[in-house]
Amino acid sequence: MMEKISVIVPVYGVEKVLERCVDSILVQTYKNIEIVLVDDGSPDNCPAMCDAYAEKYNNIVVVHKPNGGLTSAWKEGVRHASGDLVGFVDSDDWIDADMYERLYTELLHQGADIAMAGLVFDYEDPNFPPRRETNRMDMSVYDRSEVEALFPVLLNDGSFIGRTIQPSRVTKLFRKKLVEQNLDLWDERVNVGEDLQMVFAAVLDADKICAIPDYYPYHYWYNMSSMTGGHDPHYLEKIKFLKERMEFISDKKSVYDFYPQIRNDFLSLAVMAVKNEIWRNHTDSFGQVLKNVRAMCQDSVVQEALQNHTMDKIGLSVKLYIFMMKHRLTLPCYLVTKVFFTFYYKVFSHK
Question: Is residue 351 predicted with pLDDT exceeding 50?
Answer without folding.
Answer: no
